[in-house]
Amino acid sequence: MLIALHKNARTAPAVRAEIAVSDETASVSVQRFGITEQTVYKWKKCTVFGNRSHTAHHLQAVLTPA
């Protein structure tokens, strides 16, 4: 399976899952993966680690019956 990561993405879904289940401190994870502490804490709270779509899921325009 080929994963298309954003050019600025520092973590892949597997790394995110590893961070979440890790018992190491946030400062160790920061140095190990080259990310911020805020990112470590974010992934420790999550249960879903895949990439989500960022496209709008609702119409921005009002449609008429015609």
Report on the structure:
With 66 residues, the protein is an all-alpha fold. The protein contains 3 helices and no strands. α1 (13-21) packs across α3 (37-45). The radius of gyration is 17 Å and the shape is elongated.
Short description:
With 66 residues, this protein is mainly α. Helix content is 39%, strand content 0%. The chain is elongated.
Structural key phrases:
66 residues; mainly alpha; 3 helices
Biggest sheet layout: none
- Pairing-aware structural class of the strands and helices? mainly alpha
Work out the radius of gyration: 17 Å
Taken in chain order, the helices and strands follow as: HHH
Mean pLDDT: 81
Number of helices: 3
Beta-strand level of the residues, as a percent range? Answer: under 5%
Level of helix content? Answer: 25-40%
Large-scale geometry: elongated
Number of strands: 0
Distance between the termini: 43 Å
Query: Which residues form runs of ≥5 with pLDDT under 50?
Result: none
